[in-house]
Amino acid sequence: MASVFTKIINGELPGRFVYRDETCVAFLSIEPVRYGHTLLVPIAEVDKWTDLDPTTWAHLNKVALEIGVALKDAFSTPRTGYMIAGFDVPHTHIHLFPAESMTEYDLSKAFAADSTDPAAMDEAAARIRQHLGTDEDGFREA
After folding, report:
1. Does residue 137 lie in a domain region?
2. How confident is the model at residue 129, as a pLDDT?
3. What is the DSSP letter of 137?
4. Residue 65: which domain range?
5. What are the recorded GO MF terms, alphabetically (predicted)?
6. Measuring CA to CA, how many Å separate 64 from each of 11, 21, 111?
7. pLDDT 10s digits, 26-46
8. CA-CA distance, 104 to 98, in Å (whole number)?
């Protein structure tokens, strides 16, 4: 059975994409610790990050750096959080989020999916895409 992330990647469930290539995608978390919280996910459905092949792991981290800079710049924060938890969805994913302090590294304090403002989520995605130079599907603009 496909993971919820695979369903988002395949367009079966909605997602606010900010990045996409042949190896991975990035879209906003529906339960963000703050607006701009992005999930970076390999297209291959691999449960544990420790089971990824080294090439995919290296690529994810290269993309995480790029998205991290975009988040820091788009939201004018001193840092970008990077975290791997992996217990909620059995599909490797890296949490990337604009960070002001260590208190934001607590996923249990995230907004509930039904408490986020859709307009604020759309605006956050647009800001990130602007800094990455990507379109609404996450692809590089020509």
Report:
1. no
2. 98
3. T
4. 4-132
5. hydrolase activity
6. 22, 13, 22
7. 999 999 999 999 999 999 999
8. 9
Per annotation, catalytic residue among 59, 93, 95, 131: 93
Residue 116 included in any domain: yes
Residue 72, domain CATH: 3.30.428.10
CB-count burial class (<10 Å; 0-12, 13-18, 19+) for 6: middle
Q: Model-level pTM?
A: 0.95
Please check whether residue 17 is in contact with residue 138, taking contact to mean a CB–CB distance below 8 angstroms. yes
Does 125 reside within a domain?
yes
CA 38, 118, 45: angle at the middle one, nearest 5?
35
106 — phi, psi (to 5°)?
Answer: -115, 100
Give the total number of structural domains in the chain.
1
Asked whether residue 44 is assigned to any structural domain, the reply reads yes
User: Residue 99's beta-bridge partner residues?
Assistant: 79
Q: pLDDT tens across 56-70, in order?
A: 999 999 999 999 999
